[in-house]
Design brief:
- The protein has 329 residues and is an alpha+beta fold.
- The strands form 3 sheets. A 7-stranded mixed sheet has the order 1-2-3-4-5-7-6, sandwiched between helices.
- Helices cover 41% and strands 17% of the residues.
- Helix 6 packs across helix 9 and helix 12 runs antiparallel to helix 13.
């Protein structure tokens, strides 16, 4: 079964969060026994509005939260992953999402406390960029405590290398130009699958997704009717969990122009004529489904012409000599 990973922003009254931290507290008391009595009073998080719950196949499996420490700093609390789901990178997912949320809220630093007995936790935070600091506030003088701090930076933009590091994603060089004020447009591979699944995704919704979620949307198969329904369900739940909004449906085109192997869409050649070129039927037939889809999207009003011509070149539909002449005419 494919794993459906959903990240939900919620608050400390969420029943799934309450369930997970009850499991966390049970483990802490079993591990630390009487030592936990000194720390338990500091673990309470009533009325916290910045809580993350991660679901795998609709089951809550990991959580975390943060609260304001001072005007520039948040404190990360209540990090937990169910035992059967450890070792799969879920802790990193939670930390990344908490940091992203804190950045959105205008904070510059994150601090946290862990135990000297929890080596894997300290290793996780170290790899995530946290450094050991002097124990702060209530943890001063507690030898079992390890306090850590990190400067928060915007590090979640999916760039070209992020996609190319993952096998199975078709991503184009010209898409690197789709950046405005650090907001990236939805990649063609995801737009292609959304069209087949009958669902819309707004850029504002896309920007709320984590890097892992974006990559999953690019990787997730959507080649037949059953897979399209699963893709629709996955993305619908993702949008609902991350934004609280219901997904917008899109009518599925049963005969999309990109799948027509008998003629080149008029819009594509009309766009090509602006540059004094044309796309032959033979060239059209040799393109991949996604390449044909991309050319159709880039032919529509609102797309910059420079990206259309870059796609033409990248897809091998125009010589370097012709490209040079266009740029210098």
């Amino acid at each position: 079964m494919n794993k459906w990973l959903i990240i939900k922003r919620t608050n400390s009254n969420d029943p799934d969060f309450q369930l997970l931290i009850s499991h966390l507290d049970h483990e802490l008391w079993n591990e630390l026994k009487e030592d936990q009595a000194a720390y338990d009073q500091y673990n309470k998080v009533p009325d916290i509005k910045t809580v993350i719950v991660v679901y795998e196949n609709k089951k809550p499996v990991a959580c975390g939260c943060f609260k304001k420490h001072d005007d520039d700093t948040v404190e990360i609390k209540r990090m937990f992953v169910e035992k059967d789901h450890r070792g799969n990178g879920l802790s990193k997912v939670v930390v990344n999402e908490l940091e992203k949320w804190a950045i959105e809220a205008g904070f510059k630093y994150a601090i946290l406390e862990t135990s000297v007995h929890f080596g894997p936790a300290k290793s996780l935070y170290t790899k995530a960029g946290y450094a050991v600091i002097e124990n702060y506030d209530q943890y001063k003088g507690l030898e079992e405590s390890v306090c850590m701090k990190k400067e928060l930076i915007h590090a979640d933009v999916v760039d070209k290398s992020s996609f190319r590091e993952v096998k199975g994603i078709e991503y184009f060089d010209f898409e690197d130009d789709f950046v405005e004020k650090n907001i990236r447009c939805i990649p063609m591979i995801v737009r292609f699958k959304m069209d087949k699944a009958g669902i819309k995704l707004k850029l504002a919704e896309w920007s709320r997704f984590s890097v892992e979620e974006r990559i999953e949307l690019a990787k997730k198969v959507c080649d037949n009717e059953a897979e399209a329904k699963e893709y629709n369900s996955y993305l619908s739940e993702l949008i609902k969990g991350r934004t609280g909004n219901e997904a917008t449906s899109l009518e599925i085109d049963k005969n999309p122009a990109w799948n027509d192997m008998h003629s080149v869409p008029a819009a594509v050649n009309e766009k090509a004529k602006e540059f004094g070129i044309s796309v032959s039927l033979e060239q059209w037939q040799q393109l991949t489904n996604l390449q044909r889809f991309a050319l159709i999207k880039l032919s529509r009003p609102g797309h910059e012409s420079k990206n259309f011509i870059k796609a033409i070149k990248e897809f091998g539909l125009m010589s370097e000599k012709k490209l040079y002449a266009i740029h210098n005419r």
